[in-house]
Amino acid sequence: MTSLWLANRVEQAAPVDPPPESERSADVVVVGAGITGLITAVLLARAGKDVMVVEAFRVGAGATGNTTAKISLLQSTKLSKIVSKHGAKTARQYVEGNREGLEWLVGHCEAHGLSVQREDAFTYAQSEQGVAMVRDELEACEAAGLDVDWVDDADVPFPFHGAVRLPEQAQFDPMPLLDSLVVELEERGGRLVQGVRVQKVSTDGEGLTLDVRTQAGSEFEIRGKQCVLATGIPILDRGGFFARLKPQRSYCMAYKVPGTITRGMYISADSPTRSLRYAPTPDGDRLIAGGAGHPVGHEKSPSSSVQELDQWTKLHYPGAMQTHYWSAQDYSPIDELPYVGPILPGNEKIFVATGFDKWGMTNGTAAALALSSRILGGRMDWAEAFDSWSPHELSGIPKALQTNAQVGLYLARGWITPVTRIGNRTPEEGGVVSGPPWDLEARSVVDGCEYRVSPVCPHLGGIVNWNDADESWECPLHGSRFAPDGTLLEGPATRNLTAAR
Questions:
Q1: Is 425 left (phi over 0), alpha (psi -120 to 50) or beta?
Q2: Where does the UniProt annotation place the signal sequence (predicted)?
């Protein structure tokens, strides 16, 4: 399962040994080599900071390399949700931050000769029931200062009942952007260390100590004055961001389609979500269809929703042949606004950037602009809408209570349900089974190989569930994911599942 963006890339093997001791310190340590982390690192390096980027896998391995890569200020029904909770002023600040993110991205790509396609963006209704939602988004966009209009018809083959249109947005392949950022970072004296996972961050009077572990198992320390966690969800529990975010999994497929592929970037307001764009490739344009989303670890059989998306695409694009399939994880904030800033109020040593709610190209870049400015002693005018700690979070309290009540339910259910079906049978694909009471085991069969690991998530003790679309284990509490053999794929956990007893 490899995204269109990551396919056919020649990656260097992760280093087996830790870097020399002389290279284990920096002014700022950035954790995560996606769009947010690398732009933050480059902006700081341009200002003369000594910067190190630490990445658990490889550049772009997280959300950035598995996105639809739309660079748009029209973001489904996002603005109508923000306006209803926070008002037009905050929505305008949110838009302004995203606008600066878009302009920075497009400007950087143009300056480096990277391909960007300028296309109109549409939030559309795929049924009569969805029209009211799209009308609400139109009003919110106008209140937030976007130059949108309403269209009744579009040259598309799928059900269409009107849309909000925002002209001159953008789309691209994000990996050449990341490659250019790595080159500039190193030219400016910064360093990138791949295959190294941060497991703990400690503070003292002089700065920070990061405890890290290589993929080969070597452990060492990195020293820094400040740290930026650009890891999707913060890997530290300080600030309780794991309880302020809802992890979401979504899926994408690329297709070779006979004839002309739909131009423009489309996303439905009503369910099930359908997201479409085209992507130029050396072998002709591809159609990208996305959707089938679900809260991480909560879906009994994600593969059925993925199959439904595939069938929908082939119905409306006859002759479409799937060439790539991938998935990504995003984090929805309880109050609809991203969290960008100190991990705790008044803490100017550790910073977070999270809660981009599937719109990480513009939000991630805006976060990098806001964080780098703050670390350098400045502040963006629109940054209030992105604050990691702000009174606007009060609007998210009801949703937070609901979300965390659900977390408690899944914690209890995860431990109790396997005990009610005691047996020694390995599930057909994957599942948690019980031998003696409370002796739980996660078993899976992938490509003919059987794996047995502990199902207890090392973050807060949730019991993982099997994702039959991704062939991975997912914790329904806070979204940690693991390979069939227990290897950690993404946090907030920082360690693998342990071997079965």
A1: beta
A2: none
